[in-house]
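Supplementary notes for students who missed Thursday's class. We covered one full example, reproduced here. Read the sequence, then the structure, then the short commentary at the end.
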Amino acid sequence: MGLIGLGNMGTAFGERLLEGGYELVVSNRTPGKSESLEARGARLAGTPEELAAQVDVVLTSLADDEAFEAVATRVVDAARPGTVLVDASTVSAASSARVAAHAEARSGSR
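Structure (token representation):
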């Protein structure tokens, strides 16, 4: 599983996933935010694209529409067919709809 966005909520998600025995790949814009999860066994991906290429499920926990759309479109573009994107970000319905439309367009082109 992959996790992008390691603020308070994202880090808590990561801790629970690791406690549950899941293998976890993490990515975050701010260097150093992943250290506590890496110490517990998570692997660090340098970019959202690198993360998306390694996992079947990507969980995002981002601060706003702009951050979510920027990261999610990169994930969609790099993801393998069948990858699931689960968003737990603080975003508008319109932002989610734009990313969904992008994902739908990409899935039709593969």
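Commentary. The chain has five helices and five strands. Residues 5 and 13 are 10 Å apart (CA to CA). If anything here is unclear, bring it to office hours.
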